[in-house]
Design goal:
98 residues, alpha+beta, globular
Length: 98
């Protein structure tokens, strides 16, 4: 298991295993920008899909790292992350407490 190291400048995602020494990258290897760490289940949008990347960045800035948010009333039992900004804003207001 690991995590995704994401650079919002380059719009790239790198899979990274958990290190036994606790080393966590903080800078992008390509541009030197700050790295965001997201759950390993995160699936990055295509590099040229600017709107989808803005949604991912917005969610991250509001504390969402693509961890599962459970809701027993849904099948398969967890909430799907939004793919557009209108839904993302509603998602943040609804699930911020989680």
């Amino acid at each position: 298991m690991g995590y995704k190291a994401v650079c919002f400048n380059c719009k790239k995602s790198f899979s990274r295993p958990h290190s036994a020494f606790g080393h966590v990258p903080t800078k992008c290897l390509d541009c030197g920008g700050t790295i965001a760490l997201l759950n390993q289940t995160f699936r990055p949008p295509k590099k040229n899909d600017k709107e989808a990347w803005e949604v991912v960045k917005y969610l991250f800035e509001n504390g969402f790292t693509y961890q599962h948010i459970h809701n027993e009333s849904l099948s398969p039992g967890y909430v799907q992350y939004p793919t557009n900004m209108r839904d993302a804003k509603e998602f943040v207001s609804k699930y911020k407490k989680f």
